[in-house]
Amino acid sequence: MRLTLSCLKADVGSVGGHTRPSRAMMDKVQGIVDWAKKQGYILDGRAFYTGDDINLVLSHTRGQNSGDIHLGVALQAFKEATRIAQETGLYGAGQDLLVDAPAGNIRGAGPAVAELTFEHNLAGNRPAESFLVFAADKCGPGAYNLPFYLAFADPMYCSGLTLVPKMKQGFRFSIIDMDEASHDSIIVLDAPDDLHDIVALLRDNERFAIESITSRTYQDQQAVSVSAQRLHNIAGAYTGKDDPVAIVRNQGIFPAPEEIMLPWSIGHFVGGGARGSHQMPIMPVPVGTPVTGPYCLPLVSAIGFSLAQDGTFAGEYVDFFDNPAWDYVRLEVQRKGLEMRRQGFSGAAMLPFSELEYTGLQEIFKDLLPRFGERRDRPGHSHLAEANKSTS
Ligand code: MG
Ligand code: MG
After folding, report:
1. Distance set, CA 18 to CA 7, 11, 94, 274, 293 (Å)
2. Ligand of minimum distance to the alpha carbon of 242
3. H or E stretch at 235
4. Contact 170/190 with Cβ under 8 angstroms?
5. Torsion of the alpha carbons at 331, 139, 193 and 212, rounded to the nearest 10
6. Local confidence band at 231 (pLDDT 50, 70, 90 cut-offs)
7. Are 208 and 197 in contact (CB under 8 A)?
8. What pLDDT, on the 0 to 100 scale, is given for residue 355?
9. Residues 314-339: tens digit of each pLDDT
10. Span between the terminal Cα atoms of the chain, in Å
11. Is 79 a catalytic residue?
12. How many whole angstroms separate alpha carbon 253 and alpha carbon 137?
């Protein structure tokens, strides 16, 4: 069968500030997913949360950008969760639902979407189908650039690139220019041939993001899909960081989970954190972790699924970051985060002016910049003092 995996994410309200959705919201959302399965809209589905974002993982045969899936299931679930958030006075109720009645599908309406489609028959080069779902909070889609680059293009992190003949040709990266707001602007580059070009783009997490990665040996086999769209480009004003989701198929012709996981031990600095305006290291956490740490360390979760022949999820998933090995990483990341926080507002600790999500600094500058005056150095005469005297 032609199977599509859809991961849809929205922040529609949370308890005690932007921490996590309420249990009542999650029960409602999972109830709608269960209903959609019973009605035959989807083959299987799971709802979970990472930080303040609700994520739906759905398998189905309706293809990408399906109105049934996007509007009939996901938007319905997000609206019901919004209603509960409003009734119970939660923070940011309905925040990511920017368009009241989106036409066709949910893309561009606020929620993040990652989807990929493949022939699912548990035969040929995919005798087993396993995949990971990543969800990150308090950061943008560029947060996936370094970890996915290392897992799919760097033999220092992915030994499969040399050990597995079917991976030796490498992978094809589709990269989006997120500064282009009027249309999707994409470049396709091959690793390892175009490695340095890929690096030149992925260096800039705020502007460029990996959108998809495909096998070069089997060009119909897509490994990765990232929700690489920017909310502030859609809404035209601050609505929070994009908090991206990603689907990553693994094993066989793709990197193994351990190769995909290793780069997350770096705890690399990404744009996000408090008020979406800082550089903070990203911390790998189990799903269901609220954002309650000092200054909103960006969080990432990763859960793994197996697909049965009928497209169902084997009844359960495994939480990759819920393992003692990651306790050490978390402590290291927290240490890095606090070290950066010691310099407060200064320099690299905060995002550059063009990337700031709040307008406060712009307003301060609007007031201050006209008040600068040219110094005319004359002995015993202060032009500025003169000017200040005449305005006081
Ligand atoms: Mg939020
Ligand atoms: Mg969020």
Report:
1. 21, 9, 12, 11, 11
2. 2
3. helix 231-235
4. yes
5. 120
6. low
7. no
8. 81
9. 999 999 999 999 999 999 999 999 99
10. 78
11. no
12. 29
